[in-house]
Amino acid sequence: MISIEEAIQLVKNNSKPLIKETIKPTERANGYVLFKDVYSPINMPPFRQSAMDGYALCLHESLKYKLIGEVKAGDSNQPILKHGEAVRIFTGAPVPDSANAIMMQEKVQSNGMSITIEHQISLGLNIRPSGEQVKQGDIALKKGTKLTPAAIGYLISLGITQVSVYKKPNIAIVTTGNELIDAGETLTYGKIYESNSKMLLSALYSLKFYDVTIHKVEDNYFKTVEKLNSVINDNDLVIITGGISVGDYDFVGKALNELKVEELFYKVKQKPGKPLFFGKKERTLVFALPGNPAAALSCFYVYVYIALQNIMNRKIMELPRVNAKSISNFEKRGDRPQFLKAIHNEGEVEILEGQNSSMLQTFAISNALVFVPENISSIKANDLVNTVLLPI
Predict the structure, then answer these.
(1) Per residue, what are the HEC states of 104-167?
(2) pLDDT tens per residue across span 119-151
(3) pTM for the complete prediction?
(4) What exactly does this protein do (predicted)?
(5) How far is Cα 258 from Cα 279, in angstroms, rounded to an integer?
C-alpha cells in the first residue's frame, strides 16, 4: 500500500501525452488543444472599420462638415470625401478610404444637410485599422492553445472552418458484478441498479471527453479476461469499476495479471478508495476503481483526472486546491488520509454528513472534497482545511 502522494506521482509519470492529430470542424472543437499553429487567412478586421455609430470625417480646420451620404454595416459602396465632408456611419461599417476620423454621434449636431462637431479630433480616432486583431499570414493561435468558446468564435470570424487538434483518448468504462442491472429494468431481490458507468460517463462528458464506450462483464474469470483484453487493445484509457478487491468473485486483478498489464500500484492509503489499481499495457492506461460509487468518483477526480489532463498535454494536471475555513467539526476514524465530501462557498467549506463510500446522496450536492491528512485526527470549526474544488 502506497501513499496518496506516491500514487499521484506515479500517475503523472506514466500518463503521457497522446501525440495524435485529428481534424475537427471548428464549431465542434471546444475543449480540444491545437496540434499546430493556426495562421490567419485574412486581415481582421478585413477593412477599416467603424468602432461606433457616428460620422466619418475628412478632417479640415472648421467644426462644420457637409453631409454627403451614409455607410451601413455590410455596405460595399466607397464614397469619396473631400476636405470638410462627412458621411453618417454605423458600428462595424467599412470606413471610406478618404475618411480619417470618426466622431461619435453624441458629440455631433446635425440638420440633415450638414453637421457640427463639438471639438477637433485626432487622426484615426474611432477607426479600427485593417488587421488590428491579426494580419493575414500571422499566427492567429499557437500550437498548444486549448480551444474555448471565445477561441472558436475568433477562428470562425477568420473564416477558419476546421482545425488540427490533438486527438482525445478513446476511453472504455467496464463495470463488473452479477448484482447489477440497468435502470428501467425490474428490480428483483438481490439486484441493484448499476450507476457507476453513467456517473463516470457524465464526469467524462463534463470534461469534454466524448469518445467513450461502456461495457459490462459478469463475475466470471474467463469472460473478464476476454472483455478486458478487448477493451485494452482498442482504447487509450480503460476505467474498470468493481471486482478489484480480494473476494472469491473479484476477478479483475487476476485478469489484469493474466493479460500482463504492468501494475504501477495497487492499494492506496486513503479513505475512500483504498482498493485502487493503476497500471498500463504498452500505451494503454488502466484504472481499476472500487465498486462503491462514492469511492469510485473520488478516485476519478483525484487520479483519473490527472491522467486525462496529461494525455491531453495540459500544463495544469490536478484539480485546484484552496485553503478554506471549515464551518464544521469532524472526527476522523483510523489513521488513513481522507477525502470528505463538502460544499465550498466563498472561502468557507461545510463538511457534509453521510461520508460512507457506498453513498452518493451527499456527493450529489457536493462541489468540493476536503482533504484530511494522516497526521490530522480532527477538524474544528474555523480551522483552515485543504479543499479540492470539483469541476462541476
Answers:
(1) EHHHEEECCCEEEECCCCCCCCCEECCCCCECCCCEEECCCCECCHHHHHHHHHCCCCEEEEEC
(2) 999 999 999 999 999 999 999 999 989 999 999
(3) 0.81
(4) Catalyzes the insertion of molybdate into adenylated molybdopterin with the concomitant release of AMP.
(5) 13
